[in-house]
Amino acid sequence: MWLLGLPWALALLVAVASSSPSADTPDPASIFADLSPAELRAVRTFLMGRPELGLSPSQGGPLAKNSLFLVELLPPKKRSALRFLEHGGAQPRREARAVIFFGAQAEPNVTELAVGPLPHPSSYRLLGFKGGRAVPFSARPMTQLEYELLHEALVATMAPLEPLLREATGFGFQNCSERCLTFSDIAPRGLGPGERRTWLVIQRFVEGFFLHPTGLEVLLDHQDPDPRRWAVRRLWYNGRYFGSVRELAESHAQRMLPLARLPEPPARQLFSSYEPRGHFASGTPTEVHGAKVCEPQGRRYRLRGNRLEYGGWSLAFRLRSSAGLQLFDVRFNRERVAYELSVQEAIAFYGGHSPAAMQTKYMDAGWAMGASSYELARGVDCPETATFLDAYHLLDADGPVRFRHALCVFELPTGVPLRRHFDSDFQGGFHFYAGLEGRALVLRTTSTVYNYDYIWDFLLYPNGVLEAKVHATGYIHATFYTPEGQRYGSRVHSHLLGNIHTHLVHYKVDLDVAGSGNSFETMDIRFENISNPWSAGARGWDRDSHTPGLTPPLTHPRYHLAVTRRHENEPSSSSIYTQNDPWEPPVTFESFIRDNETIEDQDLVAWVTVGFLHVPHAEDIPNTATPGNAVGFFLRPFNFFNEDPSVASRAPVIVRPLDPPTCSRLEIQRWTPSSPGACVHPEPFTYNGTYRQV
């Protein structure tokens, strides 16, 4: 049995990367490998050549066109994969998932296709959603082209407000090469199905512009595929609503408008920057390097393509462009414990007084959080000793884009023993001391979804425990300070309100413990008042465990854990379309759990939600710090092994006195070299930071 332990909210696990299968001796894990650049190009070339699809390049042109938005691996069906992995059956057909925006037709829509076989595609078929739900064109994710058109429309419509903006902020939109204004867009984009009306927060474009709102928020209607029909429907400035640009401009011209005047930003040490400022009172040095991770005798893990091995662990991993990390075929000592562990969604719900703040309900799969995996910095984001992996995404582009060092793998000293014991003789000596150093293998990536940075960690421990953890950092989503806004957050700077919000992260855990037929139960502990059997008349407490029923959850943000039967037509609990159509989404998690199916001795999936409430404070400037802003869960063995499997490690230390109780001569047993040797990484810090089409 494997136990789902629950820290703050719960517990479990997951992981991923990007790699193509070897052409010579492909590892079985390659059936789960992300598409290679060659495969991505092959799918695009095939689809662009199909005349019935009528596809145009993604970049440039009108919005009302047919274009290829996303290409990523379509994982094989579980039955086919297990037949191949367990019984030497045929390798599953390798296919791609392709998302197409059909905008150049009478009834625009979004359609998904399965394209294959790879590496030489020759056919495609429709991919449907459970219940046959169609995806309306208005539910499509934003594209670079739509953002460019949105910026052009905003610049044009804001022209009458240029005097106001220049006077209040010193920045503007018109003829701008420096001292420019920019915007952050809010979602959902409306109040009901079919709408595409977005609140835009106008900000000064300086380093950390997320913390520099001007007090102006604009509601722009961009539902029509023709940008010439887009229009500003509403404005909010410094606590007041206006029905049109003209109304706001006239209020300013007539000096009837209280201006929100912003101070001139300093050239150096801007409060939203990372530049050092101030001093620590202790005076201890910070201008020298601190403690580092090292591998004095080399790496203790093996990475082959997308197969990762460490101690008893073996797993396949990938990085989905749509939703991020995904693990398959997770085994310990060759026995599968999980078929799939994957990130499904990251949500942030906000409160506020301004319209943008009260409307914000971010669902980051809709912003392609998997493809927001920018370069990890050696020595900062991952230790210098880490192995770095590139990722390739074809998302809103006319070819695959390389994301350099998007993932890293490293062994981490936990700083606490995995286990230890000092056996005292209670006479000033001891019988023995034994301890096993704490180590874990970490698989890491990040998702920088505009202002926020999520650090995704998946840790493998030598005692058969897996941990999934996510840290939240980056810039807070902040709005302009007004006295009324303090009900919904904190004043974190002179003109800045940090809005209260809740982070929720959803995971899929397809456990296969001793086979795919599993059952689910919860365990609780209670005290029972009983007669003491060895002292007549005395009463004592005895623990009695029982297994109460689990209240069935309704939807993943509401409950910590839901358990359902596994179905091929329920691969994910969310989709890239939910953000822009949360009212009638093509994937509805409630339908997974309202079918009243038995979950005894079945192929089960655990859907896990973790999260935390974030009340921003001044210490979130310039960025939210990771300590205290992390959540996750564990997957732990529970009477699965005969003993702690980490006894197979050769890293323990045992000390026994040879002359007890004097203890002047000691026998020290260890199975590793007596000294780890030098621990220095000589290479200087380097960074690239680009992600370009290849």
TrEMBL record:
Q: How is the cofactor bound?
A: Contains 1 topaquinone per subunit.
Region forming the signal peptide: 1-19
| Named cofactor requirement(s) | Cu cation
Query: Any idea of its EC number?
Result: 1.4.3.-
Q: Which residues form the Copper amine oxidase catalytic domain?
A: 292-529, 558-646
Xref: Gene3D superfamilies: 3.10.450.40, Copper amine oxidase, catalytic domain (2.70.98.20)
Q: Which residues form the active site?
A: D364 (proton acceptor), Y452 (schiff-base intermediate with substrate)
The modified positions for 2',4',5'-topaquinone read Y452
Q: Which Pfam family, giving just one, matches this sequence? A: Cu_amine_oxidN2
Q: Name one GO biological process term.
A: amine metabolic process
Domain Copper amine oxidase N3-terminal intervals: 140-240
Q: Which SUPFAM superfamilies match?
A: Amine oxidase catalytic domain, Amine oxidase N-terminal region
Q: Which UniProt keywords apply?
A: Copper, Metal-binding, Oxidoreductase, Signal, TPQ
Please give one Gene Ontology molecular function term for this protein.
diamine oxidase activity
Superkingdom as given in the UniProt entry: Eukaryota
List, for all copies, the residue spans of the domain called Copper amine oxidase N2-terminal.
Answer: 39-123
Report if keyword Protease is assigned: no
Task: Provide one Gene Ontology cellular component.
Answer: plasma membrane
Instruction: Report the PTM annotation.
Output: Topaquinone (TPQ) is generated by copper-dependent autoxidation of a specific tyrosyl residue.
Q: Does the keyword Signal apply?
A: yes
The text of the family note is: Belongs to the copper/topaquinone oxidase family.
Instruction: Report the protein name in the record.
Output: Amine oxidase
Q: Which organism is it from?
A: Grantiella picta
